[in-house]
## 1
Amino acid sequence: MGQQAAYSVIQLKQLQAFHAVADAQSFSAAATLTHMSQPSLSRLIKQLEDEVGAELIDRYHRPLQLTAAGAFFYDKTQTLLTELDTITALTQRMAHPPKQLIIGFVPSVLYGLLPNIIAQLKQRLPDLDIQLKDISSYQQIEALKSGLIDVGFGRFAQRDDWVRQILLRHERYVAALPAKDPLALSAINPAPPIKLSDLTERRLVLYHQTHLPRTSAEQLNAAPLNLVETVTEPLLNLFSKYGAAPFATTTVSDLQVALGLVAAGEGITLVPDSLKTLRSEQIHYRTLLHEDATSPIYLNTLAQAPHPHLNDLLDIIYAVYEDKGITYRQFHPKKPED
Ligand code: BEZ
């Protein structure tokens, strides 16, 4: 292999002992949890402190606390230990190619093209055991790293060194209105597009469980930083982008409940275009004038060692888009020489 680097001689078991004691805030509780004796734990932590050259645990208070240096060291090494777990899980998966494909998805893609895509994938790969798991966009990142899912379809951009997000397309939002709403009863057929500012006198039903991360510019302008709420609700964010704000909002747990409330005449909401067949007796959907009032669809996958059937899945998705005349963005994996 490469040249021998001068790594620190800190040992993994010393780090694990330190984290166990820090988490339990007690040597005896950590000893029970780790099945080690208290003297062994103490010895490992003492060796670690000698190696680092700093006292990490304040042993004079109960429950035990970390020193300032210890808290810093804990934070930084936590990232290391998590990375090591991820590396181990990925290495195991590389060594044992999976016979199954576990697909995570957010509900809004299930009501659109997902069933068609899965049916075609099963036809192409009849021996592959395909499983589906509903899971929010944010949870998909950790689920990919831990092996809970192999790929995920989500609607939020996220940043993680281990994960690649393949942008499939931007899907237009449409307004969902109760059938009796005056805006649902357009005299013109087909009904012309409406603006978000036409909807501000209605109650907006919000259903996203995850919010948009703020841009770093927004974060920098907000002070003090540690008190800032770092997320925004996607639909409200969209309204504000067009200088509009609904007079009232109601927040519910998911999309189906939101559409139920709209059907009951309790408010309006915005949904991705592929959902406009849902509850079509009670809900009228109207196109929005704003071309960039859209919701992205991402295919989330591991950046390294993606599932061996990822390309089959992408082929099928692009074929479905072609077949339906949907505008999309094709992903070209980088060749090794690029
Ligand atoms: C889509 O609507 O573009 C889509 C839905 C599910 C999986 C992939 C793509």
## 2
Amino acid sequence: MEENQEKNIVNKVVVVTGGARGIGAEIVKFLAKLGYKVVLNYNKSESYAQDVKKELNNVEIFKADVSKKEEANALIDFAIKKYGKIDVLINNAGIAQTKLFTEITDEDWKNIIDTNLNSAFYCSREAVKNMIHNKSGLIINISSIWGITGASCEVAYSTSKAAINGFTKALAKELGPSNIRVNAIAPGIINTAMNSYLSEDELKNIKEEIPLEKIGDPVDIAKCVKWLIEDNYTTGQIISINGGWIC
Ligand code: NAP
């Protein structure tokens, strides 16, 4: 790696929500190994967060339920107090639920919208104040292909991710003149605990529908995050990494 590139990475501060497990944990580890300063947010998975921190000395951990405004704000304030700035915010925290539409309760709906959509609003609003001041920044929202196509029995989840896509496009337009880019990554099916409810047979059937005939790995998403950080002309895009499942 060239010296200038290395310096650029070492000086960059990245905040990852839901960074203790699954896709978020892979993003944290991938970027920290490259030298980025990473703030890993966790909510319930403290021991996983501690394990990542033990492994990598440029990772700080912070507990916050980002579906709650005060806790999301506290996370962003922590990163700014610690490092003086945020270069990249990755809104990754998310929950899924499979239910018939008529069985979705008010509480289910609120919980999914608060966790998958409102968290991105709270964290971005707070971080953007700092990014505007710095005239530089990048927000990456982890969306889903279901936000593009809609999924049966996942109406709340699909709605939250479709809203994230709209949020991404609108915010990119507003913040472009401040040199802040906003993009979303919309994964297909990725091998994490989120899909642990699927049986072997169900996974086999899904693989048969995917042109590349395989389930994605969290590192496939981390590599796209790295590319977006290094890039400087991509904004307002929903990049779907899905093995060709939807085109
Ligand atoms: P996962 O393994 O179930 O991990 C979910 C992560 O979200 C955990 O780190 C969890 O943290 C965090 N989280 C949930 N609620 C939170 C809250 N209120 N505050 C802070 N953190 C919270 O799922 P994943 O597959 O890695 O999913 C990550 C993102 O990718 C999600 O937005 C998901 O919708 C999206 N996605 C996943 C797939 C897939 O196939 N896996 C496909 C498309 C999109 P704690 O454990 O600390 O609570």
